[in-house]
Design goal:
Blueprint: E1 2-6, E2 9-11, E3 16-18, E4 20-24, E5 27-32, H1 37-44, E6 48-51, E7 56-59, E8 61-66, H2 81-90, E9 93-101, H3 108-119, E10 126-132, H4 140-149, E11 154-158, H5 169-182, E12 185-189, H6 193-206, H7 212-217, H8 220-237, E13 241-243, H9 249-260, E14 265-269, H10 271-275, H11 278-281, H12 302-311, E15 317-318, H13 327-330, H14 350-360, H15 366-380, E16 398-402, E17 407-408, E18 427-428, E19 431-437, E20 440-444, E21 447-448
Parallel strand pairs: 1-6, 2-7, 8-9, 9-10, 10-11, 11-12, 12-13, 13-14, 14-15
Antiparallel strand pairs: 1-4, 2-3, 4-5, 7-16, 16-19, 17-18, 19-20, 20-21
Helix pairs in contact: 4-5, 5-8, 8-9, 14-15
The structure holds dihydropyrimidine-2,4(1H,3H)-dione and zinc ion (2 copies).
Length: 467
């Protein structure tokens, strides 16, 4: 099957060029000048020609932080591998890296194997896994080595949630030492959970039980403290570190200071921290519960700092932490914010939201948009250059993006399996028009053209950002 995408502007993290993209089967074979002889002969013999005049042609998005079919919380995530990845395809994200978790007394590889079974044959886009680590003991570092050899090269640890998935500093240091040996990346949920739990209990005792107090008690000071400690531990271990879902200017300052000292410290933020804020948690009639995630939404003034961090590359990646819960599931915590399940639905909207905030509103360049949504996660998590760019030899995961197609985000039109939208009524300037997954058109406008199981499992290399 030969496909030519003609007349568009190809945008990668590096350059913006008028060029045609030539695809043979699943692979890009040429990015060439529109008037070239190669285009003419290729297009003549092509099975399909896609006209991209006036559109951007960008590498498929990579969302490096999702939780599909997760059951580790108060309520199960009802977004399945099937529903979540179809929504992902509609949003122009052609690869996800999902978190496999250990439940009960499971070992590291158990969570991975269960997750692989659950995902097999279900996914609409390509997928890999990180592991959420709990119950670290002397076996855990060896299990980590085993998984790295299988292509699972990143491991999330928690400084929050004592008594559940929390690891103490010694356990974290031990795993970081092993990561320094095996080349993997430790991802950190950096919030001081021990102190936060005291504040949460005190709030509940005072009768402060509304969703707003979820935000108030998880103060950014205790996010920054945990980031600082995680950096210190990784420096001692000699391992790189990746902070997940960084939410505040306080935490960002710690990352900036570490990077200025030359440490291999990286961080991701999420659209919710750039577009939503603490006041959403204070919406009346328990509506605020729809915005409960951890770390929580912050006062609006943090947002400018995060955008600046993206501009200066102190924040490298934008991922969603997609972890949706329906209204009925939120209701579990009506009488105590501590029982509201944590996580927001964003997977489908990441590319369009980030285009809006970055490009349409003039904060960042087109190339930076592609970088933080596609190339940076590909490099961070060992998928580059197969993913994250449009170049000869790379997978033909391609989005035709219309920069002038105003529309409104709404639960009425989204494909995510959740009964509300955190972005209801938000106006977007640009829109995903067509999506190709390894050369196959899976989305055309409002039509889904894929088949169940199109997505392939991706064993990953190690992070390619290290010196
Ligand atoms: N951390 C996540 O990454 N996702 C959901 C909840 C949490 O604490
Ligand atoms: Zn987390
Ligand atoms: Zn998460």
């Amino acid at each position: 099957m030969r496909t030519a995408i003609t007349g568009g502007t190809v945008v990668t993290a590096i350059e913006t060029v008028l060029a045609d993209v030539l695809i043979e089967g699943e692979i890009v074979v040429g990015v060439v000048h529109p008037d070239s002889e190669m285009t003419r002969t290729f297009a003549e013999g092509a099975d399909r020609v896609i006209d991209a005049q006036g559109k951007f042609v960008v590498p498929g998005g990579i969302d490096a932080h999702t939780h599909l079919q997760a059951t580790g919380q108060i309520a199960p995530v009802l977004e399945t591998f099937e529903t979540g990845t179809v929504a992902s395809a509609f949003g122009g994200t052609t690869t996800i890296i999902d978190f496999a978790f250990m439940s009960g007394d499971e070992r590291l590889p158990d969570g991975y194997e269960r997750h692989r079974e659950n995902a097999a044959g279900e996914c609409a886009v390509d997928y890999g896994f990180h592991i959420m680590v709990a119950n670290v003991d002397e076996q855990s570092p060896k299990e980590m080595d085993l998984l790295v050899r299988e292509g699972v090269t990143s491991f999330k640890m928690f400084m929050a949630y004592p008594g559940r998935v929390y690891s103490d500093d010694g356990q974290i240091l031990r795993m970081m030492q092993q990561a320094a040996e095996n080349g993997s990346l430790i991802q950190m949920h950096a919030e001081n959970g021990i102190a936060i739990d005291v504040l949460r209990e005190q709030a509940a005792e005072r009768g402060d039980i509304e969703p707003l107090f979820h935000g108030v008690t998880r103060t950014p000071i205790l996010e920054a403290e945990a980031v600082h400690r995680a950096i210190a531990l990784s420096e001692v271990a000699g391992s790189p570190l990746y902070i997940v879902h960084l939410s505040s200017s306080n935490a960002l300052e710690e990352v900036v200071a570490a990077r200025d000292r030359g440490l291999n410290v990286f961080a991701e933020t999420c659209p919710q921290y750039l577009f939503l804020d603490l006041s959403d948690l204070d919406r009346p009639d328990f509506e605020g519960s729809k915005f409960v995630c951890s770390p929580p939404l912050r006062p609006q003034e943090h947002q400018d700092h995060l955008w600046r961090g993206l501009r200066t590359n102190d924040l490298q990646v934008v991922a969603t932490d997609h972890c949706p819960f329906c209204w009925e599931q939120r209701e579990i915590g009506r009488n105590d914010f501590r029982s509201i399940p944590n996580g927001l639905p964003t997977l489908e909207h990441r590319m369009e939201l980030m285009f809006q905030g970055a490009v349409a509103e003039g904060r960042l360049s087109l190339n930076r948009w592609v970088d933080m949504c596609s190339r940076a996660p590909a490099k961070m998590f060992g998928l580059y250059p197969r993913k994250g760019t449009i170049a000869p030899g790379s997978d033909a995961d391609i989005v035709v993006f219309d920069p002038n197609s105003p529309h409104t985000l709404s639960v009425e039109t989204h494909h995510m399996n959740v009964d509300y939208s955190c972005y209801e009524g938000m106006r977007m300037t640009g829109q995903v028009e067509k999506v190709l997954l390894r050369g196959k058109v899976v989305v055309d406008g409002t039509e889904y053209l894929g088949t169940k199981g199109d997505g392939q499992y991706l064993p990953r290399d190690i992070c390619s950002n290290l010196l």
